[in-house]
Amino acid sequence: MSNAPATIELFYDYGSPFTYLLDTQIEHIADAHGAVVKYRPMLLGGVFKATGNRSPILEECKPKAAYGSAHLQRLVSHYGVDFAFNESFPINTLQLMRVAHAALDTERFSQVHRAIFRGVWADNRNLGDAAEIAAVLKEASADADALLARASEPTIKDALRATTDEAVERGVFGAPTLFVDGEMYFGNDHLFLMVAALEARAR
After folding, report:
1. pTM for the structure as a whole
2. What is the CATH classification number for the domain harbouring 129?
3. 182: which DSSP letter?
4. What are phi and psi for residue 51, nearest 5 degrees?
5. pLDDT in tens, 36-49
């Protein structure tokens, strides 16, 4: 048994609907197992480019694509959360992921994080648009001007690039990807295995 709280690292990009769904559950799972979530904003496009992977939306196998869409809706129903496939998809998330890094060490991160995810995957907002990003940040009671300014700083740009590079080096090929004690778990489908690891860790 380990007395130290487990850390769940979540590598994510706001452009992933499956990550949005997992994000609605991860804090509840962490709380139930005395764990903490460490959010790791990465650029999924960069991961895809480095690994040769691509978005499920580009799946050429029609039966697999159809199953993926059905699976997404099953998860929505299972979790009982609001969801609407974004009409502006695919969204360029570069600015959003820089904003996430800019907000990471602020007291408003949780509100900003949830507002962005909800804006993209529940409220059908085009968060590839700078004005719309600012509006969502303000609605989350964040200092939109300060966050957007910080998101443009070289240190934040470098931080996003470094996290994306780290993700690739650790074997990440898509989102959502979680790590507990160095073990990687990909997607909603493997949450039960991550939970089992947390339970075993506490014994």
Report:
1. 0.96
2. 3.40.30.10
3. T
4. -105, -10
5. 999 999 999 999 99
